[in-house]
Amino acid sequence: MCKLCVFAGTTEGRELVSFLAGQPVSVVACVATEYGQTLLPASDNLTVSAGRLTQPEMEALFAREGFDMVIDATHPYAALVTENIAAACQAAQVPYHRLLRSDTCMPENAVFADSIPQAVEYLNRTAGNILLTTGSKELHQFAGMENFAQRVYARVLPMEDSLRLCREAGLQPSHILAMQGPFTQELNAATLKALGAAYLVTKASGTAGGFQDKISAAQACGVTAVIIGRPPQHAGTDLEQTVDMLCGRFGFVPRQEVAVVGIGPGSRSMQTQEAREALARADCIIGAQRMLQAVAAPGQVQCAAISPESIRSAIGENRHCRRLAVAMSGDVGFFSGTKKLLPLLGECTLRLIPGISSLVYLCARLGTSYEDVVPVTLHGRENPILLPLSQGRRVFTLVGGENGMGKLCQRLTQAGLGSTRVSAGENLSYPEEKITQGTAQELQGQTFAPLCAALLEPVEAHPFTPGMPDAAFLRTDAVPMTKSEIRAVCLSKLALPPDALAWDVGAGTGSVTVEMALSAPRGQVFAIERKEEAVALLRQNLDKFHADNVSVIPGLAPECCTSLPAPTHAFLGGTGGNVAQIIALLLEKNPHVRIVATAVTLESIAALTACMQQFRCHEAVSLSVSRAQKVGPYHLMTAQNPIHIFTMQNP
């Protein structure tokens, strides 16, 4: 196994160490501070040396360890350190390689200085506050500037040495900004505004050093950037070229870098700076054809792929490409294929870059917040949407298909929710953007684009608490119904989470089904019922309560349930004498399913008592309910049939 030494004082150096951590090599990483040590990855093949080394100490280290190569990835301005490393390598006869920071495009409206004294000379001819971002080591060179203590605010690392150098230079505590980067453009801009700065002093430290974010912030705030030119560097290569060299020399296997990029609603103006940079530096871009047309540049390899599997195949077919970008519409964490893609990319170095989602964009255009909005997608699948609206929730939805938005408005109207306020967005962020507002009833006859985003806001709500009045349900004498008090206790015993997948066996009128659906608004309920007249009544009650997270399964359990997904919870209200077989199927589907069952007859009680022994946790409750009944001028309590409630689960 070969042995390498990396002086990893920069972002590029840390990235190189991360790459080497996954290779068959022994690595010694040298950093100047203990803080720098915390930024490096933990790996069995990595040893970290924290502390500044003199040239003799470097020579002793190189001779003792017998490195096959020393890689100098120190800061471009650490010229003396670079000279010491190169000299120590020559003395120890160890191959030396310089890792260079990539050049950064310089802005046209900035002031350039070849050295710090030249920058000081320029600043002495100006007025206004100065944000100094060149670090603490060379702060003393600025200390001789006129009105230094009054004009200069220094941003330095939050370390004792940095603070000491600030004090020695004559800065008051109120002019010391002890902060650790990285610093975004927004944070830089906020700092400049808070200080009332007229000038920002920086070194041309490259993209990895946050240079572009500083310059962009200065331009946005109307602040003059004073850029101190980079000193001459030893001959070397950038990070990508260095990795290529190491792979060729030592037989390392390069890992592909895959950036999954949220490109926002669609237009380039809505892409973040980070997204544009990741797309621009990619050798290969993968995504839907319409996205490739929007983001790909000439010379980049393009692969049209949509499904996670096809994207993974495209990455594998382009092993010659080191950097790849997968373009995802909107944000990578919001109704995105990213969730299913990530488990397929374990062999790649991954980076997720968020984008502006259609929810965020549409709500911003409407001038409203979105923290209380329920997100639902109907694009390519059917998810419950009537239920949250009926409960008074604001709903954001993505709608696909030929005039899917118009059909949704028609569906809302037919369900009795035609008064819902609708804000439908088409071609968001493009010049042909259109936002149409009105009630669902007003918009149901209109035609919309195939892909729409919409905010739906109900005008009334129907709050839910377990044990709704019996009179709330449609019912007939021919179909039995679990009464209000029993439902309340059974729902309590079921303990349904919001995303439960539940079965209601022997659903009858659907009173328990409805309450299960309302208790699990993000879940799904399967209502199993064998009697035709009960199935018809069940569907009517589901429509009445807008329980569109319920699927009705006509038939006799357990035969009609074999193809259903594994439940997390099950309620057994009517089993047709098949309780043992039904419980056996439930346990086969999910050994940890939580079951609540009711029994009235002695035969049912005996059958459930026998089944109860299969479970490590179980209980049986006998519940008797009496209701007041008017008899002449008096009210007497009339007892109802006692109900036995069984709760069973293997935790």
Characterize this entry briefly.
By secondary structure, this protein is an alpha/beta fold. 32% of the residues lie in helices and 24% in strands. It folds into five domains: 2-98, NAD(P)-binding Rossmann-like Domain (Rossmann fold, 3-Layer(aba) Sandwich); 111-228, Rossmann fold; 255-356, Tetrapyrrole methylase, N-terminal domain (Cobalt-precorrin-4 Transmethylase, domain 1, 3-Layer(aba) Sandwich); 359-457, Methyltransferase, Cobalt-precorrin-4 Transmethylase, Domain 2 (2-Layer Sandwich), CATH 3.30.950; 470-649, Rossmann fold, CATH 3.40.50.
Characterise this structure.
By secondary structure, this protein is of the alpha/beta class. The protein has five domains: 97 residues, NAD(P)-binding Rossmann-like Domain (Rossmann fold, 3-Layer(aba) Sandwich), CATH 3.40.50; 118 residues, HUPs (Rossmann fold), CATH 3.40.50.620; 102 residues, Tetrapyrrole methylase, N-terminal domain (Cobalt-precorrin-4 Transmethylase, domain 1, 3-Layer(aba) Sandwich); 99 residues, Tetrapyrrole methylase, C-terminal domain (Methyltransferase, Cobalt-precorrin-4 Transmethylase, Domain 2, 2-Layer Sandwich), CATH 3.30.950.10; 180 residues, Vaccinia Virus protein VP39 (Rossmann fold, 3-Layer(aba) Sandwich), CATH 3.40.50.150. It has 23 helices and 30 strands. Helix 3 crosses helix 4 and helix 8 packs across helix 9. The longest helix has 14 residues. The mean pLDDT is 90.
